[in-house]
Write a structure and sequence with these properties.
This is STAS domain-containing protein. It comes from Lentzea indica. InterPro entries: MlaB-like_STAS, STAS_dom, STAS_dom_sf. The chain has a single domain, classed as Transcription Regulator spoIIAA (2-Layer Sandwich). Helix content is 39%, strand content 30%. It is built from 4 helices and 5 strands; from the N terminus they run E-E-E-H-E-H-E-H-H. It has a 5-stranded mixed β-sheet with strand order 1-2-3-4-5. The longest helix has 16 residues.
C-alpha cells in the first residue's frame, strides 16, 4: 500500500495475477499527482503485469495535473504493451475526463503520431 496519511489523497495498490489495481481516495491535484504517478508506474513497468486498472470511486476532485498523470500513465502502459482502464468514476471526475476527451482517447494513435520514431517527421 502506498499512502500519505497527512495528505488529502491516498493510493492503495495490489497485484492480482497479471492485473495491477490502484485504488485512489481524495483529491488528485498538483500536490498529490506525484504520489499517484509513483504508486502506479511500477505496475505499468512490471513485466508480469498485462493490465493496469485505476479505481477512482473515491476521488472527489481531478485537476489538470491529475489528468496529465493519467495521460502519462496511459501512454506508458501502451508503450509497455499493457491495457489501461479507469473504472468506478464519480460524476465530477467523469465530467473532467469527458471534457478533455480522455474517455475516448486512443493512446496508440497519439504515441505513433508524437513519440514513436517512425511517426516523427524530420
Amino acid at each position: 500500500m502506498t499512502a500519505c496519511e497527512s495528505s488529502p489523497f491516498a493510493v492503495r495498490t495490489q497485484r492480482s495475477g497479471t492485473r495491477f489495481v490502484a485504488t485512489c481516495r481524495g483529491e488528485m491535484d498538483v500536490t498529490t499527482c506525484d504520489l499517484f504517478f509513483a504508486a502506479v508506474l511500477p505496475g505499468v513497468t512490471d513485466t508480469a503485469t498485462d493490465r493496469v486498472s485505476i479505481d477512482l470511486a473515491e476521488v472527489t476532485f481531478l485537476s489538470a495535473s491529475g489528468l496529465r498523470s493519467l495521460l502519462l500513465l496511459l501512454c506508458a502502459a501502451h508503450y509497455n504493451g499493457k491495457s489501461f482502464d479507469l473504472h468506478r468514476l464519480q460524476p465530477q471526475v467523469r465530467r473532467v475526463l469527458d471534457l478533455f476527451g480522455f474517455t475516448t482517447f486512443k493512446a496508440g494513435l497519439v504515441w505513433d503520431a508524437t513519440m514513436s520514431p517512425r511517426g516523427r517527421r524530420h
